[in-house]
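Open question from group meeting: does this chain pack into something compact, or does most of it stay loose? Before anyone orders reagents, we agreed to write out a predicted structure and look at it together. Recording both the input and the output here so the notebook holds the full record.
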Amino acid sequence: MFREFIFPGFVRLSRASQRASRRTSERGRFIQISAVICAAIGVDTNLTLVYQVFALLLCLIIVSRLSLRVLPPKVSVRRRLPKYATAGQTFEYFIAVSNEGSHIERDLKLVDNPRIVAPDFKQFKDEREPGEETRNAYDRWIGFHRFVWLQRRNTGIVIKQGDVPEISLKATADTRMEALPLRRGIVNFTSTTLLSPDPFGLNFSLTNFNQHDQLMVLPRRYAVSKAFELPGGRHFQPGGVNSTWSIGESDEFVSLRDYRDGDSMRKVHWASTAKRDKPVVKEFQDEFFVRQALVLDTDTQDAELLEETVSVAASLLLQMENTDGLMDLVYVSKTAQIVTAGRGYAQVNHQLEALATLEKCHGAAARLKETMSSHRKLMSGCILVLPGWDESRQQLLNSLSSAGIPTALFIVTADKDELTNVPAKANVLPIHDIAERLANL
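Structure tokens returned:
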């Protein structure tokens, strides 16, 4: 009850502390702390002269505030983001700052502002900060550190302050920004703040520029052993002539025959038609080619386990990017989804984008089983990535095995000792040992 009462104050407190930290430099904070200490020590002016130091520091702080520029620098800013970033990997981007004023601009700084996403009370109550058990009893009871951690994760990115180079009159300078995505998904940028220092470098005046952008953050990927082979070989694709064309394996010419209603005019053999004075068409033979599926289950309440499961799927997709066949990513969101990649189809980046925005889905294994029952005729092999092991997932594997589809099974787990009746050929990946296990497949 007490937490629910103070929870709204966490949001206001975090916003106020962010604004305060931006208005004062490290040097300014040192001066302010020194002034407070001198004020405490120099209360009795008969015993010490420290109060004189306090008066000097206080005057310095006041003059610093009064000397902030009334008129902000006349500049414009434009953000240039990359197309993709990867969760957990630092990247750089640039913000162009153009000087539209009448004097040279120096010592400016930039802060880029993502949209702050505060947790709701349910999330705050249900989820735990990693290592929270090591904090003291008071911090665990209040929970402010948990709130800060959840807000950082929901926001999704941490961006360092950038130093703007000196900008000449009517010139443009690029400011290098460094950012670290904390999660996969879409990160929204709302504005950019320009910091203009006072002559002493103690305080900053703030100027906000609204510029909304989005950045797609792809899941974390791990290196997969080159020795890992895809299950299955070439498989006949019903009506797959167009597909074999699209992946560079054109169908093979077999013979000529008389025209039949419905035949494409593109198949007409004009030389034979002219000789025989009736339509003659070319007959082709359908081709066999490789078409695998990566089936991903997202039915888990463990947020860390879900993220690692998605990362394993993304790693395997990237490993198979240069194969000659087709790869279907099969997962369940609100409905069952199949995203196909390969030459002539979408690129693997489209599958990674789908994984980036994927959320957990209750009962996914049963719905995947229904989807694969109609899709398995097209499949040469299957890779099954699961967050844990239970009866419904056993049934999904059995349905694929009974159809004669070679399957590579990957089970991601928080505790491998809890797994029972796991198939002997399954690849069990504990969440803290995934990188090493995938590298040694």
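Observations to bring back to the group:
The radius of gyration is 31 Å.
Residues 252-285 form one domain.
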